[in-house]
Amino acid sequence: MPPASATPPPGERRAPLGPLRPSPLVEQAAERLRDQIAGGSWPVGTKLPGETTLARELGVGRSTVREALRALAGAGLVQPRQGAGVFVVATEPDEDWPARLRRASVADVYEIRMMLEVRAAELAAERRTDADLAALDRALAARDDAFAGPAVEAFIDADIALHTAVVAAAHNPVLADLFAEFVPVLRDGLLDLVTLVDVRASDTAHGRDAHAALVEAVRGGDPAAAGRTIKRELAGTLAALLQGR
Question: Which ranges carry the HTH gntR-type domain (predicted)?
Answer without folding.
Answer: 23-91
